[in-house]
Give the backbone structure.
Amino acid sequence: MAAGSARIVRYILFAFFGIMILYFMSSSSIPRPPLPTTSDLKGEQGKTHPGAPAGDVQVPPPLTVEKVADASDAASAPALTSLKQSNDGPSGPAQPVAETSGERMNATFVTLARNSDLWEIVKSIRQVEDRFNRKFHYDWVFLNDKPFDTTFKNVTTSLISGKTHYGLIPEEHWSFPEHIDTDKARRVREDMAQRKIIYGDSISYRHMCRFESGFFFQHPLMQQFEWYWRVEPSIELYCDIDYDTFKFMRDHNKKYSFVLSLYEYVETIPTLWDSVKTFRDNHPEHIAEDNGMKFLSDDGGETYNHCHFWSNFEIGNLNWLRSQAYTDYFNQLDKDGGFFYERWGDAPVHSIAAGLLLKKDEIHFFNDIAYYHVPFTHCPTGEQYRLDRKCHCNPKDNFDWKGYSCTSRFFDMNKLEKPQGYKDQQD
């Protein structure tokens, strides 16, 4: 009995010493850093890590961007543009390189904004850069009736992959012209305010509409460019755009484009069509053959049906806007005073010009540019279409085939086949 107990005790002692030996061997072969304490974490705040911005935490390796060096060479320089991850990130291998090659168009984005619009326009910039411009690095022109401040310039420049330009609008392009009776214009604003017409009492809105209608393309900063893409604050782009839209416009002989269309508020343009007919009668040489009149009128041009392309999104040709035909058109409208005696918007002004001065096949509907500007959405019709372009819009929000949209008219005028499933999105 005593001998058996002694053997059990020896076995227990051997096992104990064996476990202790394994423990010390494993502890010495796998060194472990101590867990950070709360004090350690607090001590890290404010330190500058190698490669990180001063006063900030360490960030993943930045994107390296290769692009044409100077905007002045944009028209002639080949675009060897790419986005690359500088090395593998902590979460895995770098994303595939997205590249474009070939001719780079002489084009720019253009935005009319104030300093107070900064935090709304940066949302739009991120949308445009992430969905399109990170692959193409086009320039961006900002225009303002007051000087841009340093914060606006620094923040927007930091977000844009192309070169940025900041311009002051000439006073004569943002004021009452001499031929306008300001007392009459004031009475109109007061009347519209009483009738609760949107922006009816606003002077600055009228200056904006007149500027966008007749002057933005004349600004010295815009003179170097041939193509423009208009961007406004707080827009969204829902799908990837993997081709050069400016090059598409050039290659397919398009001069104006849209993504949304609708009927204009009748109370804001009661005599606009009268001015248009005066221009048409005075300048028949400017009216294009096979034009888009059927989009604008249901009776051959006698009356206006109020359809227009929503101009907060436009991709267009600046040489067309600088043409004698468009100049004569705008001068007639400006002379008649409707920007101030009524509340003519730049959307119907641009749309009517495109419908009359261009051939109908020179106007393009960008179905693949999914777009939102409050309160309307263009979301491409067709599930596979959206999946292929990594879209995140809700097709139920698509405005294209609703009763207040004019896009069906554009399709009918051009004898275009409407996309499969469009009937499911009608009212």
Residues 2-29 form the longest helix (28 residues). The CA atoms of residues 360 and 414 lie 7 Å apart. The chain is about 35% helix and 15% strand.
